[in-house]
Amino acid sequence: MVGLTRIGPFAHILEEVLDAVRIAQIAATPGLVSYMLSAVDCLSDLLLAACKGGDLPPGFETSLLFALAEISGINFDTGTAAQSPPPSD
Fold first, then answer.
1. Which of 18, 29, 57, 88 has the fewest CB atoms within 10 Å of its CB?
2. How confident is the model at residue 21 (pLDDT cuts 50, 70, 90)?
C-alpha cells in the first residue's frame, strides 16, 4: 500500500489543527487558513498518488508540516516523513 503510511499521519495532523481551532485553542487566522487549504491540496496529491499506485518524492509534505506546526503553535510528532526541518534557502 504505497503512500498510505504517509497519508494517515498527515491527515491526523490536519485533524489536530482543526480540532484546536474548534475548541478555540488557536485562532483561525488568515495565515492558518491558507496553510490548511494548502494542506488539503497536499493530502489530495498524496491520495491521488497512492490511488495510482505511485508515491510522491520523500519529504513532499515536510515543509508544509513544519509550517503548520509553526503557525499553529501545536507540537506534534511529524513521523518519519519529517524528521528534521527543511533546509533554509
1. 88
2. very high
